[in-house]
Amino acid sequence: xxQLVQSKPSIEALRDFLINYRGHSFVGLTTLTNAKAYKRNxxxxxxxxxxxxxxxxxxxxxxxxxxxxxxEGKDIDFQVQxxxxxxxxxxxxxxxxxxxxxxxxxLYLEYKGEKVxxxxxxxxxGEELAYxxxxxxxxxxxxxxxxxxxxxxxxxxxxxxxxxxxxxxxxKNFLG
Length: 176
What we know:
About 15% of the residues lie in helices and about 35% in strands. By secondary structure, the protein is an alpha+beta fold. Strands 1, 2, 3, 4, 5, 6, 7, 8 and 9 form a nine-stranded antiparallel sheet that branches. A hairpin with a 5-residue loop joins β3 (about 85-90) and β4 (about 95-100). The longest helix is centred in the middle third of the chain and has 11 residues, at about 60-70.
C-alpha cells in the first residue's frame, strides 16, 4: 500500500486531464478511501479501503438504466432524481461540491463500476485487515430505488480526486 500512496498523481494534473477529457471510456482505477466503518464498538478506528476496479467514465446514468432494462427485456420509463449533492460539470466526468461555509471546492470523479478486481482493508498505520474480521464494522450496501425493477444494478459511484491513486485509460497509466 505504501508504494501506491507514494506514486499518487497530483490532484491538479488529474483534474486538468479529466476536465479536458471528452467522451466516455473504460478506465482502470485504484482508489484509497475511508471505508466509513461504524464508530460504535469499533476498536480499530478508521478503516481504509484499497480498491482496484474497471469503471466507465463519461457515461449517462439514464441511458445506462435504459440499456440494462432492454437487456433484461423490460420497458421501463425511469424517473431519475437529481443529484443529492454536488453539481455535474458539463461535458466532463467530474462533480463539483462547494462547501457553503468556506467556499472551498472539491472535485469528484463520477463513474459506473463495471468490475471490482481487488479490495483490501487497512488501518491508518498500514496494517492489513481481513474482511471477515471487520465486515461487522462496515455499512451495508444499498441500491437506488430508481433501479428497483432491474435484476442487475448499475453501480454509480463518486470518488474524490484526492483518493485516486492510479487511473489507467487507453492502455496508459495516468500518474500525473
